Amino acid sequence: MSHPSRLAIIGAGPIGLEAALHASRAGMDVTLLERGRVAENVQRWGHVRLFTPFGMNSSELGRSALREQGRNLPDDDALLTGAEFVEHYLQPLSELPELRQGLHEEADVFTIGRSGTWKGDLIGNPQRGNAPFRILVRDAASERMVEADVVFDCTGTFGNHNWLGDGGIPCPGELDYGCDIEHGLPDLAGDARAEYAGRHTLLVGSGYSAATNLVALAGIAAETPETRITWLTRRSGTTPVTLIDDDPLAERKRLTATANDLATRSDGPVDWLPGHSVTALTPADDDDGFEVTVRSLSDGTERTFPVDRIIANVGFRPDRSIYEELQVQECYASQGPMRLAAKLLGETSADCLVQPTPDADLLTNPEPGFYILGSKSYGRNSRFLLQTGLQQIHDVLSLLPSGAATG
Ligand SMILES: Cc1cc2nc3c(=O)[nH]c(=O)nc-3n(C[C@H](O)[C@H](O)[C@H](O)COP(=O)(O)OP(=O)(O)OC[C@H]3O[C@@H](n4cnc5c(N)ncnc54)[C@H](O)[C@@H]3O)c2cc1C
After folding, report:
1. Among 302, 306, 350, 359, which lies 20 to 30 A Cα-Cα from 1?
2. Do the domains spanning 6-159+316-399 and 166-312 agree at the CATH topology level?
3. In the beta sheet, which residues pair with residue 117?
4. How far does residue 296's CA lie from ligand 1's centre (Å)?
5. Whose CA is nearest to atom 9 of ligand 1?
6. Is the pLDDT higher at 405 or at 296?
7. What digits encode the pLDDT tens for the residues 125-144?
8. Ligand 1: does its nearest atom lie under 6 Å from the Cβ of 16?
9. Distance 392 CA to ligand 1 centre (A)
10. Range 6-159+316-399: architecture per CATH
11. To which H or E segment does residue 6 belong?
12. Are 370 and 133 in contact (CB under 8 A)?
């Protein structure tokens, strides 16, 4: 492959933007395709505070490039909200001259193939790499084809939610009425407050998103006492969220402790329903809310009760449709690319700061020149951290013909 290689990066989230900067500094010809706005997914949870500090979430190269432009940056130990991270770092990154030129917003990648080479051709053969990638991009008005020699899929998983129903499949009613279920992090202290105040919400899930929503809903209940929350978790230990011993991330520790305390005290607005799953939902008679049926995972007993709102923080999954014509080997459990997934399956710590040793080979898969980076590289595994993605960029660039790793 002659240099500079044409690199297409799909997704201008934190990892796509950083990858674009690092690759263009390494001399690659970069096109960055983003279906929405810059950092679209982070903007959707902009009111939430990150629990890792700014210095862990940004690269040395990114910070120095912005300082060269005269930008003031947050302190390395600052805990920013998603919106502040976008405003003070990600948006300015996207405006750097080397990114601006190749960045296309509102450019939705539909799917990727290889010119003259079908999925079943040259199985696992490096010669597939001689055929350029063909990327079908759609915007509001048109469709076009982008060609590239190397592709980084940095499209994340946020927005592609798992199902609420028992066993991870939709429960009866979920397909028809699921559009009224919230899967993300509504701004419960802001725009979304009125929708939940004085209502009964069913909150499902036991991760940090559920904990964040629970604490915010309890905040509403403190001001509007009729507000009630039923917190349903599959987990049936002594607390809903796993507390990490000696957690070094103070914000995560505080969130976990507050949510667990709210769930386990008897005098608050929260009714914790451990060891249950959702088996059916139907719309309420007045069309505002649901009748929900839940089942005990230990003895199989079922009960049905009305709720006004449902927030299902049941995780996200990768959208694999964009690479389904390529030769990508996936993990049967996490749907992440196989080599990295196999390594991650061996990690049992509850702390996502504990990560496998970086290894560039883990990012390769049978399709030459195609790499899945960022949160999508973890598939359904929710332990991804931005600092892992920053390391991946360094690793993947060291694999490319230029040996183009940057600092
Ligand atoms: C609420 C929340 C808090 C988090 N807090 C932390 C934290 O404190 N520390 C930490 O390290 N990590 C945290 N994470 C995890 C992770 O770091 C973030 O999810 C981060 O945004 C992942 O970055 P990414 O670039 O991989 O993906 P994303 O930010 O999801 O970006 C993917 C981009 O791809 C675009 N896209 C998707 N499909 C297409 C397509 N077909 N064509 C074109 N573009 C497409 C999307 O619009 C989006 O802009 C948090 C996650 C969440 C949800």
Report:
1. 359
2. yes
3. 114
4. 33
5. 52
6. 296
7. 999 999 999 999 999 889 99
8. yes
9. 15
10. 3-Layer(bba) Sandwich (3.50)
11. strand 6-10
12. yes
If one residue of 18, 22, 35 were mutated to test the ligand 1 pocket, choosing by the most ligand atoms within 8 A of its CB, it would be: 35
pLDDT in tens, 12-42: 999 999 999 999 999 999 999 999 999 999 9
Q: What's the chain's average pLDDT?
A: 93
Is 179 a residue whose pLDDT tops 90? no
Task: For 227-274, write each residue's pLDDT tens digit.
Answer: 999 999 999 989 999 988 888 889 899 999 999 999 999 899 999 999
Enclosing H/E stretch for 292: strand 290-296
Strands 276-283 and 290-296: antiparallel
Ligand 1 lined by 156 (C-beta under 6 Å): yes
- Cβ of 155 closer than 6 Å to ligand 1, yes or no, is yes
**Ligand 1 centre and the CA of 234: distance in Å?**
25
Helical segments of 229-331, H only: 250-264
Return the closest-CA partner of residue 231 out of 313, 165, 315.
313
Q: Determine the CATH number of domain 166-312.
A: 3.50.50.60
pLDDT at residue number 244 = 86
Q: Is the CB of 42 under 6 A from ligand 1?
A: yes
Taking the C-alpha atoms of residue 37 and residue 16, their distance in angstroms, rounded to an integer, is 13
What percentage of the chain's residues is helix, strand, coil (to nearest 5)? 30, 20, 45
Ligand 1, atom nearest to 157 Cα: 30
Q: Domain residue spans in the chain?
A: 6-159+316-399, 166-312
pTM (whole model) above 0.85: yes
What pLDDT score was predicted for residue 402? Answer: 57
- Are 24 and 30 spatial neighbours (Cβ–Cβ below 8 Å)? yes
Task: Judge if the upstream peptide bond of residue 248 is cis by omega within 30 degrees of 0.
Answer: no
